[in-house]
Amino acid sequence: MRGLIIRSTGSWYEVSLEDGQIIKARIKGKFRLDGLKLTNPVAVGDYVKVEMEDGEENTAIISEIEVRRNYVIRQSPRKKHFLHIIASNIDQAILIITINHPKLKQGFIDRFLLMTSPYDIPVTIVFNKSDLYDEQDMAVYQYLEAVYTNIGYDVLLSSATDGTGLEELSNKLKGKTSMLSGQSGVGKSTILNALHPDLELRTQELSDFSGKGQHTTTFAEMFFIDEDTKLIDTPGIKTLSYNHLEVMDIAHNFKEFFILSDNCKFNNCTHRNEPKCAVKESLERGEIAEMRYDNYLVILQEVEDQNYWERNVDY
């Protein structure tokens, strides 16, 4: 039987069969993704083949994972030599962030985009909790809006409290399979509840002590809004690292750098110290954002610091 993975809870998965029945399933044996080591070989959004194991308990074995048209993957936050698939077979990603409740981490947006760029997955960046922004916060928002719209991303301002941007966001979600992501505490579940109150997702206030978000979504889960609209809610992200990427992968997936790289003197230019680098020349002319370039350098250094042995050791 063919089904769609709609929830991941670790060792068990909830599968929606084509007849509408929901069953629990587990994997038997090992599945790998292009030879990579995974903490979760099956992800929400995967289409799978299952074989019933126990009719009374309504459980099954996942025997096959169909080829994914795309997926979003990150370094496992718990096992640094492994990867974790966040979601697969999506039409778009919705990145929900805030300027200052909790405070936006420098570089977080660019790190997230490194997960979606390899498959050219469209991303809408939603700046939430706009009702709490002061004048300085709005200035930061306007700067970031300009940076990311200039390189082709959609940007929205939103507030579940006063309704800002909710209609526009709702229209973007219609008829698509969307993955919603963001740091812990940015109000992702609150926005979903405002858009679709019947979901009744748990929400949690920021920690009074740290000012940081706390996880309310613990497992990825797909919600069917209507026949054509699916939402994948994902756990809050604290950090993003890339043990599966090399230096040139980073260079190729900063999209405006990649476009300019055709004019670099060297075809393997890393846009650091090489002569006649089109990216550096564009930076000096103020045509690309210095913030993006600084984030790029930081990520390159991190990737190089995870040396080959560390990233390829077999456990």
Which terms summarize this structure?
Ribonucleotide Reductase Protein R1, domain 1, 315 residues, 6-stranded mixed β-sheet, alpha/beta, 3 domains
What does this structure look like?
This protein has 315 residues and is an alpha/beta fold. It folds into 3 domains: 2-65, OB fold (Dihydrolipoamide Acetyltransferase, E2P) (Beta Barrel); 89-233, P-loop containing nucleotide triphosphate hydrolases (Rossmann fold); 247-312, Ribonucleotide Reductase Protein R1, domain 1, CATH 1.10.40.50. 26% of the residues lie in helices and 24% in strands. A 6-stranded mixed sheet has the order 10-9-8-11-13-12, sandwiched between helices. The chain has a 5-stranded mixed β-barrel with strand order 1-2-3-5-4. It starts with a strand and ends with a helix.
Set down the secondary structure blueprint:
Layout: E1 2-8, E2 13-17, E3 22-27, E4 47-54, E5 59-65, E6 71-75, E7 83-88, E8 92-97, H1 108-116, E9 123-127, H2 135-150, E10 154-157, H3 166-173, E11 177-182, H4 188-195, E12 221-226, E13 229-233, H5 247-252, H6 255-260, H7 278-284, H8 290-305, H9 308-312
Parallel strand pairs: 3-5, 8-9, 8-11, 9-10, 11-13
Antiparallel strand pairs: 1-2, 1-4, 2-3, 4-5, 6-7, 12-13
